[in-house]
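Page 47, continued from p. 46.
Same chain as before, 76 aa.
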Amino acid sequence: MTPLQRAYGGVQRAVCTLDARLKTVTAEPEKGAATAEYAVVLVAATAFAGVLLALIKSGTVKSLLTKIIQTALNVG
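Result:
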């Protein structure tokens, strides 16, 4: 085998490897992105729910809501 043939074989292998990597990357590039986005949304929604729960359980908000409900019931 001549040096030229060896060099050509090396280039051919490199091109095949690059082609295989590109096919792997571009086949379905966002397959896991949807799962990650759902996870981020769920974490954010859980944090928001925790903040709302803490806010509603506070004495100030509880008394304010009670007054609003009592006023609404006394209108009729």
